[in-house]
Write a structure and sequence with these properties.
383 residues, binds adenosine-5'-diphosphate, alpha+beta, single chain
């Protein structure tokens, strides 16, 4: 707190003494006026902020809220003054957020939270992003100033975008499936009638593009199912060795540009898994290896096991992945900015989620210059 006590020097008694105390009083009066002005300006600044502000003591008890905060919560200044702000909690903010908050504040540091869900006076919820600044005196926090940012509408918009994306993908699925069937039937007829090879090749190109389109739609649907926890697995005993061999055979029929080889003889190993989802992961890794490596290069597949787990790997000789991006590529929509950029940035996100649901792990190793090694491991269930 600012010290407003003026320094009074005791001079000799008499008139000069009287005039000096008048001076002191005048000085004190001026100090008070300037303090009041400072106080008013500060209050005006806080009040005019369009973002909600709340100030508490270290107990914590509310000592100030601004107009934006009153508007957001529906509570008035008078209703909340002196109260512990706990009454605003909705119960939906994870407990660890509050734990981390107090740990940070008690160290005298600023706390930033990305998302806190609180409750308004009318019971509706609102979401805020907030920064809490401790005001320190002799190293101890005496007040906390919290600047909030209302993100309720941003979050709602994100939800709407997700719903829209999922609805659009559903709508696109039917016409594209019909197109696919028609194209395939034309290819079949053209081949049977011995039509010229150009039209057959064109039809095959259309067919390939439709496949790409279907994969993108399926990825979009899967990714929104993950978000809502609606992607279910159908577990059964799967021979992973056989699964790998059949997928490699299938891919090699269409892909003449790359040579897929095995690091060693692929054994029969059984795990409890969803075979279709496992196939999806392998297809993603293999098609990425093809997409991001030069023609005529080699792709090496391996399957090893120990007592506890199996590990499948796909090694390519492609452009590699910088170390700084190796975690990010598993995020939704993330793509490394290269000339080779293709696709939608969903394949690895979905693959990682599938492997996670199988209690396994998916990761990448690359020196960032040449070649990538993608690996996933799955636990071996002996029962
Ligand atoms: P997509 O390939 O559709 O962009 P993915 O989720 O499968 O999406 O991959 C995300 C990003 O990771 C890719 O955009 C690419 O930058 C990088 N990536 C994936 N696999 C490889 C690979 N084998 N070699 C180099 N980069 C890769």
């Amino acid at each position: 707190m600012r010290n407003i006590t003026p320094k009074i020097k005791n001079k000799s008694p008499g008139t000069s003494n009287r005039s000096s105390s008048t001076n002191v009083l005048r000085q004190l009066h001026l100090e008070l006026i300037s303090l009041e002005e400072e106080n008013r300006t500060l209050r005006q600044i806080l009040a005019s902020s369009s973002d909600p502000i709340i100030i508490t003591t270290n107990e914590p008890k509310i000592i100030y809220v601004n107009l934006a905060w009153e508007k957001l919560t529906g509570y008035s200044f008078e209703e909340v003054i002196g109260k512990n702000p706990r009454f605003l909690q909705s119960g939906k903010t994870p407990r660890y957020v509050y734990k981390k908050m107090w740990k940070t504040l008690l160290l005298g540091q600023t706390f930033t939270s990305e998302k806190v869900i609180n409750k308004k006076k009318n019971g509706n919820e609102y979401q805020i992003r907030s920064n809490i600044y401790p005001v320190l005196q002799n190293g101890k926090a005496i007040y906390y100033v919290q600047l909030q940012h209302n993100i309720t509408s941003i979050k709602r918009l994100e939800e709407l975008q997700k719903e829209l994306l999922s609805a659009a993908a559903h709508e696109l699925k039917t016409p594209i499936t019909v197109l696919k069937l028609l194209t395939q039937s034309h290819i079949y007829k053209a081949q049977k009638q011995g039509n010229d090879s150009i039209s057959i090749n064109e039809l095959k190109m259309i067919d390939k593009e439709i496949d790409r389109f279907i994969r993108i739609i399926n990825d979009m649907l899967d990714s929104s199912r993950f978000e809502t926890g609606k992607l279910l697995m159908n577990y059964e005993q799967v021979n992973v060795g056989q699964l790998i061999i059949s997928i490699v055979e299938k891919i090699q029929i269409y892909t003449k540009t790359h040579n897929i080889v095995y690091a060693h003889k692929i054994k029969d190993i059984f795990v409890v898994a969803d075979p279709q989802r496992l196939e999806q992961v392998l297809l993603n890794l293999l098609s990425n290896a093809i997409k991001y490596s030069p023609e005529d290069s080699q792709i090496t597949v391996s399957l090893i096991n120990d007592d506890k787990k199996i590990t499948v790997s796909v090694q390519d000789e492609g452009i590699g992945i910088p170390k700084s991006k190796q975690k990010l590529i598993f995020d939704r929509y993330y793509q490394v900015k290269t000339k080779k950029r293709q696709g939608f940035g969903l394949g690895l996100y979905i693959s990682k989620e599938i492997i996670k649901q199988h209690h396994g792990k998916l990761w990448v190793e690359s020196n960032g210059k040449k070649g990538s090694l993608f690996l996933f491991s799955l636990p071996l269930k002996t029962d």
